[in-house]
Amino acid sequence: MAGDIMSQSEIDALLSAISTGEMSAADMKKEDETRKVKVYDFKRALRFSKDQIRSLTRIHENFARLLTTFFSAQLRSYVQITVASVDQIPFEEFVRSIPNMTLINVFEVPPLDGNILMEINPNIAYSMLDRLMGGTGASHSNVDNLTEIETKIMTNLFERSFDNLREAWENIAEIDPMLVELEVNPQFLQMISPNETVVVISLNTIIGETTGMINICIPHVVLEPIVPNLSVRYWMQTNTKEISPEQTKMLETRVKQAKLPVIAELGTTDITIEDFLGMTIGDVIPLNQKIDHPLTLKVGDLPKFTVQPGKLNKKMAVQIIEPLKGGDEDE
Which residues are CB-neighbours of 230 under 8 A, at least 6 positions away? Predict the structure, then answer.
């Protein structure tokens, strides 16, 4: 109790209990001296700190946004994917929590060791399949009867979706996800020890009128080499990384070598569509530029200088007279 910070409402309630006689100072002292025991289950070893779990949550919130855009385009339907929860549990508990017949993508993430699982609820899986084959997105929970054609369609869809996982992870590790197999029965999965700790990211998924879950299971052995990268300190260092003088010089060199279009306008005018359609060879279009006035020189699409036309070595050229007001500003 000494290490806890009480809110004002708790303090008021405590003082009220003492003043009314519901609790005495002796009772408070006795309770304070009672040894506090916290239950710890060694089968559910917590291998990741709250800080690291928050980092994994941020990564997969970004992944969920990328998946929403990807599946919306591929399925041509309303799709909404959000992170529902991020938990660390034994692998055996994860296997027991998913349906007996579901759709499970097993994929590698080199250079990291081990495999990652992506389990798609049958309702969601068959809604996706129905949309890909031209249907309305109706769900039929017969995932145990996937044909070879259906398996190939779903494999191609999720292989393309792995680019989004690569992008979501790029701040902590450069991975190259590759699909190893597509499984429908979780009992056949023998990736790791049943008591091995895994992180399970549950994504709440809506496709049209169908709802379900997509679960991503990441074993501790996969994340172990990059656990330091999941700390807030690492993220702050990454976000505030300064550019070295060598990088600055390289950027300056590349910017100086970049090519820009330079255009000297002889003048402009406006005509009607009727006049434009009636134009023939020999017609003259008067411009709004007087011959004794300087021209405007544009760099890119921005007017920068006033110039006068002429020739240089038998080639048409312009001579800069002065910069335009505001033309030398960085834009």
Answer: 48, 51, 52, 55, 56, 172, 223
Got the DSSP string for 204-248? EEEETTEEEEEEEEEEHHHHGGGGGGGSHHHHHHHHTPPPPHHHH
* 10 domain residue, yes or no: no
Collapsing DSSP to helix, strand or coil, 157 comes out as: helix
Instruction: Name, in order, each residue with C-beta under 8 angstroms of 248's C-beta and a sequence gap of 6 or more.
Output: none
β-sheet with 302-312: strand ranges across? 262-265, 295-299, 302-312, 315-323
The conformation of residue 291, written as its DSSP 8-state character, comes to: T
Angle at the Cα of 125 from the Cα atoms of 124 and 129, rounded to 5 degrees: 115
From CA 304, how far away is CA 267, in angstroms rounded? 15
Verify that 22 and 123 share a domain, yes or no: no
Report the C-alpha gap between 54 and 172 in whole angstroms: 14
Helices (H), strands (E): how many in the chain?
A: 10, 10
Assess whether 32 and 52 both reside in one domain.
no
- Provide the domain limits for residue 67: 44-239
> For residue range 267-288, what is the model confidence (pLDDT) as tens digits?
888 888 888 888 899 888 888 8
pTM for the model: 0.57
Are residues 33 and 55 located together in one domain of the fold?
no
